[in-house]
Write a structure and sequence with these properties.
Blueprint lengths: L1 H16 L2 H10 L4 H61 L2 H22 L4 H13 L3 E7 L14 H18 L8 E10 L2 E9 L8 H8 L5 E5 L5 E7 L3
Length: about 250
């Protein structure tokens, strides 16, 4: 998909740059003829058609990618629900009512957590959290939204998409530097909280960071900006990200 988008962007730049050619012809002849005007008009029309085609192609590629991502998310949730229904059905048949209650409460808690994520306020970040399980098996995310926080309602000093990109970059930094081959998937806990006129995003990794990795420099690279500060804990893999609010 990104190859198509990059190709379309390059094609648009080349098409716009080619407008210099008819202008150079006019300059070289130092006189404007009717055929020059016709050539310039046709050239502009051609550039417009190429630009429109490349934009539509890029949009189609992006849309198809998002549709495939949504399908993967739905299939993953369907698989989870089928597993839950089979477990509940088994407890009912075996008349294990105590385990049945615990299973229903676990499903309820998961639904409540997913509902809070869906109301986080940044669609790209919500989609990232919802689809992460379909693209990464090494790390599981445990998201905690304190007081049903909606990031879109906070007067943040940075754009919402910038915040979304930084959080996603931080998650992939954990994936890149996590110790592999430990058996069960490790858990990355992420908490969002409105804390003393700042947004606090807490990262805590229940796993091991590779000793040979440049962890600190990667964190600084992923979380940087005028209105962003980072406090790293002594425990490797734990840090707090603070984003200033304008009011």
């Amino acid at each position: 998909m990104w190859e198509t988008v990059k190709y379309g962007r390059t094609l648009r730049i080349a098409a716009m740059s080619s407008l210099v050619i008819p202008l150079l012809i006019v300059i070289l002849f130092q006189q404007i003829w009717a055929w020059m005007i016709a050539l310039l008009v046709l050239w502009i029309i051609a550039v417009g058609c190429v630009t429109e085609w490349s934009i539509r192609t890029s949009r189609t590629a992006i849309l198809q990618t998002e549709q495939l991502k949504a399908i993967r998310i739905l299939n993953h949730h369907r698989h989870d629900w089928m597993n839950d229904l089979q477990i509940i059905s088994g407890y009912i048949q075996l008349k294990k009512h105590d385990k049945l209650v615990n299973s229903v409460e676990r499903i309820r808690d998961r639904m409540f957590a997913e509902s809070k994520i869906a109301k986080l306020g940044i669609p790209s970040l919500v989609m990232f959290f919802q689809s992460f399980r379909t693209v990464c098996n090494e790390i599981q995310l445990d998201i905690n939204i304190v007081d049903e926080l909606n990031l879109a309602e906070l007067p943040l000093a940075i754009p919402l998409e910038t915040l979304s990109a930084q959080v996603q970059d931080m998650v992939w930094t954990y994936v890149e530097h996590a110790e592999q081959g430990l058996g069960e998937p490790q858990v990355l806990y992420i908490a969002f909280e409105n804390y003393q006129q700042e947004l606090c995003v807490r990262f805590h990794y229940e796993g091991e960071i590779r000793s040979d990795s440049d962890w600190s420099s990667k964190v600084k690279s992923a979380l940087q900006g005028q209105f962003v500060r980072v406090e790293q804990e002594q425990v490797p893999g734990s840090l707090h990200m603070y984003v200033s609010c304008t009011a």
